[in-house]
Specification:
Number of strands: 7
Distance between the termini: 7 Å
CATH superfamily of one domain: P-loop containing nucleotide triphosphate hydrolases
Helix content: 10-25%
Number of helices: 4
Structural class: alpha/beta
CATH topology of one domain: Rossmann fold
CATH class of one domain: Alpha Beta
CATH architecture of one domain: 3-Layer(aba) Sandwich
Order of helices and strands: EHEHEEHHEEE
Radius of gyration: 14 Å
Shape: globular
């Protein structure tokens, strides 16, 4: 069964709530690829996922300078990966990021285009499109 969502979220809280509800559908090994420009709400979406999976409030911060943040405190482990500072798959591979794609938890990847052709098969696709008034369109396609 495929999960498909296309929703306008007028506020960050709405974006988080959408992701929080989606967390119930996630299973071990799921990878979510979050696309959108800077400020689109990718980390906000991950905050909602983290809450929905039972991770502590405040855990989901932008991992831009750390590349990866991990938590095992929820129903499923969660790895939040931000590839913004990487130039491509070569750097990601040297960091061993592919191990997260085959793990027993959920992996949320920001800037997945940096993976090139190494995108995990069966990954969820999450596109966030911001509008000038602060509204976001969130499109989710899941396996």
């Amino acid at each position: 069964m495929t999960t498909s969502v296309d929703r306008l979220c007028p506020s960050p809280a709405d974006t988080e709530e959408l992701a929080r509800g989606l967390a119930d559908a996630l299973a071990p090994g799921d990878v979510l690829l979050l696309s959108g420009p800077l400020g689109a709400g990718k980390t906000c979406f991950v905050r909602g996922l983290a809450r929905g999976l039972g991770h502590p409030d405040g855990w989901a911060l932008s991992p831009t300078f750390q590349i990866v943040r991990e938590s095992t405190a929820g129903r499923l482990p969660l790895a939040h990966i931000d590839l913004y500072r990487l130039t491509g798959w070569g750097e990601a591979s040297r960091l061993g990021l592919e191990e997260y794609f085959d793990g027993d938890g959920v992996c949320a990847v920001e800037w997945p285009e940096r993976l090139g052709s190494h995108v995990p098969s069966g990954a969820w696709k999450v596109e966030l499109e911001p509008f000038p008034d602060g509204t976001r369109r969130v499109r989710v396609e899941g396996p």
